Each structure stands twice: as C-alpha cells, then as structure tokens.
Amino acid sequence: MGSRKSVTLHDLSAELGLSIQTISKALGGKPGMSEETRARIARTAYMRGYLTVAQARELASRGIAPYPTFQLRFALIQSRESTNYNRALAEGLRQRLGLLDHRLERHTLDADLSDRDFEAWLEEHGLPSADGLFIAPRLMSDTMERKLLALPPPKVLINYPKALSRLDSVIWDVYEAVCMAVDRLVRLGHKRIMYVGDIHSQRGFVRRWQAFQEMMGEHGLECGLAAQLTGEWDAAALRDKLADERPTALIAGIDEDIEKLFGALSELGRRVPEQLSVIGLANGPVPAVPELSRPLLLIGETGYRAADKLLWRLANGSEPWEHIRIAGPFYEGGTAIRLNG
To answer: CB–CB of 97/60 below 8 Å?
Structure first.
C-alpha cells in the first residue's frame, strides 16, 4: 500500500477515470452516485494508501466497504446469568453487523475481577483493540461495568444508563412494559394488583418497580411495598401474601419467576385466570405457559438498533450521546381476563 503523502486526488482521478469532484463526494459519503461506483472509489483509495485505516473504518461503519476483506470486530460482553435473553440480543446484533460483513464476538464476564485479573482478561480476548463494545445487562457487579465503560473503544450500553453516563445506550423498555401491564389489568377491572419479583439487585429491576408505582398511582391505586411479594420467596410466602392482601391479579416482573409463580399457584390450588389474572414480563415465549398474557420485550430488535447506534457512533464521534428505549406491543394471551362483578 502506498504512502498517504505520495497519493493525491489527481492520482486517483487519473487511475479511475473519474473527476476529482466525484471522488471527493464518494469519500465524503455524499449522494449522487451508485453505491458500486462509491465502493470502487473507496477500495482504490484504500489500496493506494490515500485513506488511513481509521478513515477506512469510518467508511466501513457507514456501509461503504473500502476493501473486500476489511472487517470491523465488535464484542458483546455478557454474564452467564443473562444468556436466556442474550441469544436474541446477539442475533439482533449479528443481523445488523452481518449486512456489512462485520464480526461479532461474545465474551462472558462472570467474576468480580481485581484490576490485575481484569487487565489479563481484556488482553486474553483482545478487547482493547476491538472496534466497538456492546455491554449487556446483569454483569457481576457495577464495578465490572464501570471498568468496561472506561475502556477506549467506542461502546453501547445495553441497559438503562446511570445518571451522568457519557455514552450511548439502547434497551428494551421494561418500564413501559410494566406500565402497559398495570394499565391492561386496570382496564379489565382489577384494582388489587400485586407485584412479584426482585426490585433491588439490577437497574432494570428497579425500573420495573418504579414503573409499577407510577402507573398504580396514575390510576389512584394503593401500591405499598408491604403489599407486594419482593425479594426471595417460595410457595408458602406466596400463600401468606395472597391471604393477607387478597389480590385479583399478579404481575410477574422478572422472567425467571414466571414458571416458578405458575408452579406455586398450581400447588396452592389457585386457578389462572379464573381466580387470579397474571401478566408476566417474559424475555420470550414461556414453554410452560404458552398463552401467557405479556408485553412483548423486543430484545432482538434492541440488538439490531444497538449495532446500528454503534456503527453510527464510529462515524459521528462528536455528536451528542443518545439513550434509546425500544417499546413493543402487548400480547393478549389467556392468563388475564376481565374481573367479574
């Protein structure tokens, strides 16, 4: 590949048989030519050394391939705890990146590593040299997330960001999903609605609880913490809470609790939906409850949008940060019905 200083627009113009203006437009990403012509110009400029590697990567991030084998390398950092939804997330990422023949790696970070071990883990997977990082929810700790966010490659947080976070984020909107669940039950005549699930250990869990409180308040309904089933629970705790609070409907806020909840209700002889309506926030179809009434969490679509956001960020490094929430529709199912009387 030639040196950047020895190659000029005049040289490229002569080799390609195109005007300097056309070449400038092509390399600037401006409209007015076929994509085939633009790609030919970009490849020639890259091969002749007119484009630096950084400039070639910027073009590749916008879908202008400067050379057939030029490929960006991205990494999804996840925990084993989140693999139940990360399959859909990774598929969405791959769909978008695959359109440009870019590569996605998946790396698992389960331990709360010391600084030394964290540096070794990074080097083992070559993450400091990645072209971009996607950071999934539910890592081992906030400490690990902070260390990842401090890395130099451009990145997208697939989570609700903390306050003052200076990076892009994309997340399937569990806040809107809980609001939708509460509103659907109220419109079916339910006023005694109990929330079931962890409300502390993850930012997304906190957001769910905040949404429940807000939407119950919007409808003028009581939602005190003591009336909910939060934290660790079992069938006996559920039995006692149902006896004390006498809800007509439940919202299972955490995916992992849904099968457990239906199993416990069956053990207690409570029929769904005849005696209790149930809406669950499931990360996807629940084989044990195929007709679960639920807001659809668009996890794959979030992956696609996160990839699109990071490609855009590579080409627009100085633009303001964006926090994007992806909301889906409601699946009626058969586990939530109108309250009689």
So the answer is: no
